[in-house]
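Issue: copy button drops trailing tokens. Both records pasted manually instead:
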Amino acid sequence: MTKTYGYYRVSTADQNPELQINALKDAGCCEILGDIGFSGAKTSRPAFDEIMNKIGEGDKLVVWRLDRMGRSLRHLVEVNETLAERGAQFESLTEKLDTSTPMGEFVFHILAAVAQLERQIIRERTLAGLAVAATKGRFPGRPRKDERWRMAA
């Protein structure tokens, strides 16, 4: 019996996954699992791993958006190859992407590359912002150990 698995992910506990869950329900997913507080950059996530262990011949993995499944091109391609080896399909609702067709497979690879590019650009901006803050003597995040000792004295 074939199944349609829905997967949702939010990066922080204060984000609300309801939009994703509702879209997956509307898409007819019979089982919906999700990870809360996990980055898409992590390849191993409890609910995602559970779905990947269950999915088989004729099944389909559905996500709200491609970046919910993963952010690196390598990981997205690996997941897609694993699904194909098992005879399973992949669908992304927002991008209207379905890998059961040659064109869908082609578009998948293009969008996966764009998702990775977006992640790299965000990383570059973050590092640039941290560098500017450091030149002004500000270091975001938890105070360094030596600073805490000086403040306590």
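Record 2 (pasted manually too):
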Amino acid sequence: MRQFDLSPLYRQTVGFDRLFNLLDQASGFETSQSYPPYNIERTGENAYRVTLAVAGFSREELSVETKENALSVKGSKEPAQPSDGREVLHQGIAARAFERRFQLADHVVVTGASLVNGLLHVDLVREIPEAQKPRRIDIGVAAPAATIVESKAA
């Protein structure tokens, strides 16, 4: 993929820093980060759900945070050492710490999170402020223009 140098645009614009940062992040997208796997679903007109496969993690080992239009899901797990003399010959179940970040659009807020059968569900809703919602303006009927009659002095 081609890399575009956006630095000349930085000098000629004011207030578009966030847009350029998003473009820089999108162009440097890492495909190597694949743990934990996740789905993003639309559950309604303005409702979404992010589902992460976090098998083996308990509620206490997971944290969900939002800050400055970013959703961050972290998991920290101490590697379990068998205390009864067993030794692990193959460990295919991941027990490593992770942090997964998602960029949120404006006015998207987290409404809840739940952990069910090894899947962490994070529910999101886009709440558009009343001032930014489209509103219908009724078209009224204008009153007829008043006619002015000139009176002449006799």
